[in-house]
Model the fold of this input.
Amino acid sequence: MCRPGSDTPGRRSRGRAIVLATALGASLTVGAHTAEARPSDIEKVPVRLLAINDLHGSLQPPKEARAQVSRPDGPTVEAGGAAYLAAYVRQLRGQASNSLLYSVGDNWGSSPIESALFHDEPAVNLLNMLGVDAASIGTHELDEGFGEFRRMQTGGCHPVDGCQFESEFAGAQFPLLAANMTFPDRTPATLPFAVNYADGVPVGVIGVMPSDARSKVAVEGVEGLDFGDELTAIDRTAETLDFLGVHAIVVLLHRGDEQTTGGPNSCDLADGPARAIATRATPLVDAIFTADSHTQYNCTVDDPAGNPRPMMQAASHGRIVSVVDMTLDRATGEVNRESTQAFNQIVTHDIPPDQTVTDLVDRADLQSAEVARRPVGAVTADITREPGPTGESPLGNLVADAQLEAARGRGAQIALTNPGGIRTDLLYGADGTATFGDAYQVQPFVNSLEVRTLTGGQLKDVLEQQFQVRSDGSTLELILAPSASLTYRVDRGAPIGSRITDIRVDRIPVTPDARYRVAVNKFLADGGDGFTALRGGTEPASAGNDLDALTAYLEARSPVAPPPPDRITVVAPN
Done:
């Protein structure tokens, strides 16, 4: 189809893309199937777009209950695992004459120990083996700072630990994109887009990070970086691509919505930022792959010109591959939207795994085994991070209790931890043994544990910030896990800022001017996740790190039972 306001089909020269290729080099040629158009009598060019998201360095299938994916007919199935993911990618690409593979951010970071122990070099090797053509950047690529991100991008051994997985590390063999990540002088911090080719027809891909990335990453990780508005970045970059003769345009948006019900190909979404962006982004964009919320959906949304386009997400950890089949017009480079079809493919275990990737996974498992399999305690049952009606989870409460115990020597009276810092469930294995690898997967960031003094008034402000107003007017609820020493009541029907009452520490009512020592991880202490009131804490002291706190607690108190979610009382509506 012709784009609104475009030149007459065929007037724009494909030569503009070649000029841009000369200027930007690898961003236009990495992963290209052909560098220049080939003579052909076929006027329509089919292309299959594949996308994964939120891989988080997963080599093995996820162990927790959330590893299961609902089939379209209702039953759930075990899914994921790098070797099966590679097999499905090979199968899906083999069914198409032209294909491109994308990854939509959080490619590594918050990873299982078999990848994280080697600074996620195995995860990058996996992405290279999969043949990723381009990837957007998520927040977790910045967990260890921009310098480490650049090393992962360009290669080289770790500046402190060297190369421990292999003797050399070549880095990513695909461009990493973020059109809205800049340095303070507004120069791009990385490539905004890439261009690949389907039988000579250019396909542009734009990467976009969340504009609030600064609140989601430790301060050190985003130092010297700015993050612009997603919609502005998409529209600006799409217009650039269109001007340069690239008319098939895909967005990799590291922002996702929550699906309330349904299988991988349903679209029962709560209102959220991804749909808002997908419906408002320029009509120049033909498909949008989203990420970050770790859920699954297959939606069709209308662009501002009323034309349909897919908006999809593939769960997380390599459990699903999103597939969009498009038809390109060879003469104009345009996408025929009416012929676009999309589906989410579950990565089941009923096909043979890829042997080359199996070898990579086995090698990472073997090299990490001595550290990962060291017992640190035992549990009596699964301890999950699934929140109940109060917003508490058994695992969140356990982590908060562990952090309080670790920080008692620094005067801590209570501890609070954010649900985003707890990355997987602590599951009961064959005999209940919990290993260091299990604990690491729960707390993979190894955040320093900080103790601050807050007044009772400041503590109330922190708890009130569990309810935050989004830019679209909706309310984000982010309940911090409290240690057993802290209890309070919450009224979800009250105005925001006045929902928390009856705060008690060790059963004694909190008073506004009294002083309390509070233990939190450094991410929270720096105001992460919108908890800016914690920045007002005084008398800072360090109490080790969150991973050591958890392993010490398990070692000292095993076998550990799931703590009851009884620390927050929800006021019943009138």
Summary: The chain has 14 helices and 31 strands. The two ends are 55 Å apart (CA to CA). The longest helix spans residues 355-372. Confidence is low (pLDDT under 50) at residues 1-41.
